[in-house]
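Are you able to produce any protein sequence you like plus the matching backbone structure tokens because I've never seen that pairing?
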Amino acid sequence: MNKQSVEFHIKSDDYFGTLATILDLIKQQIFGDKKNKLKKVIESKVSELMYLQKNYQIVKK
């Protein structure tokens, strides 16, 4: 993502969701249906990002 893209997603209140989607697509591309410790870590981070997307908003300092 470039700066303009990041700012767009923040203004759209979709920054965390976008990151979660990108991370999940990378996970699927790398691991598919395989079980792996890194896959579980990525799944955990996707879950955390979706929680942030649902409950928080980025506000510029």
Observations:
- The two ends are 21 Å apart (CA to CA).
- Residues 3-54 form one domain.
- The chain has a mean pLDDT of 88.
- Residues 37-55 form the longest helix (19 residues).
